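Async update (no meeting this week)

Hi team, since we skipped the sync, here's where things stand on the single-chain job. The sequence we agreed to prioritize is pasted below, unchanged from the tracker. I ran it this morning and attached the output directly underneath so nobody has to dig for it. Comments welcome in thread, and please keep replies under the output.
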Amino acid sequence: MDGETRVDLHYVSSNHQHYKRIYESYETLTDRFEKVNRYCSETFPDIAIENFTRNQQRGETGHQGVFHYLGVGSGSGDSDVVILTQLAKRLPRIEATITEPSDKMIANFKSAISESGNDALQKIKFTWNQATIEEYMKMPQDTKFHCIFLCGVLAYFKDVDQVVQYLYSVLAENGTILIVTEAGNETNIFYEVWYPGRFPSIKEQTGIPDNVIASFERHGAKVTASNLKCILDGSTLFDEESESGNLLLDLMTGVVDCRKTAPPEFLRQLFDFISDSSVSFKQEGKFLLKNDRLLIIVQK
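Output:
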């Protein structure tokens, strides 16, 4: 890859409509969403509630028994709704602040709440912010959050350490942050492709998990991490006429219409890399990719 120069490409992160199409297709190709939501339903709420209860038992003041939740880059709120549903079953008062730059995604989130049929969920007081986390950071507010949730957004932060510092500063004592992101090398195809400097023709991705963990630890946080094994069906990647394959390629590289706009040599090198990577394998006639999630728990 030495000597490769950058080219002018349009990035998925700035095209919310295309990003929505990508994710709708991606959902049909991976078991990631099912497994993440199972964790968000069965495991994580216990951790968040236990820490919140510890604060109440210690006589924490200023929150008046209200559980404060912050969703960062929540999209349509698929996993947020799962977490909040479980929290709402066990906590009497929840105030949820949601940040998301796409108005359409926020509308979808609101629809998911109204259509849930869950009375407890609909009693949650929501505050909606059509903003990136960087934009939200500039807004005046003094809330300390007992739970902060981020899923699949690290790669879109302009300055990871700045965001980490902010999130830790607004986390309540004994509060909990859950970050769901691409797992590390040899366990996730996105990590392998996004690793800084590996493919300099595309926009360098930020938010590599090791960097995020180290950043939180520098600020004094207690951090634990574990892998959640997931699989992605990449069989259509090599079919130039496949819509799902082309959308997956866009997601993998972060480039809109990558197959049409990226230099042919870049595409050749990328496909060679994917084919030979330790994260790919064949099973029952399918070309599969490791799509593990890294579950990062941050506690204050």
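Quick observations from my side:
Residues 1-8 have pLDDT under 50 and may be disordered.
The two ends are 42 Å apart (CA to CA).
Reply here if anything looks off.
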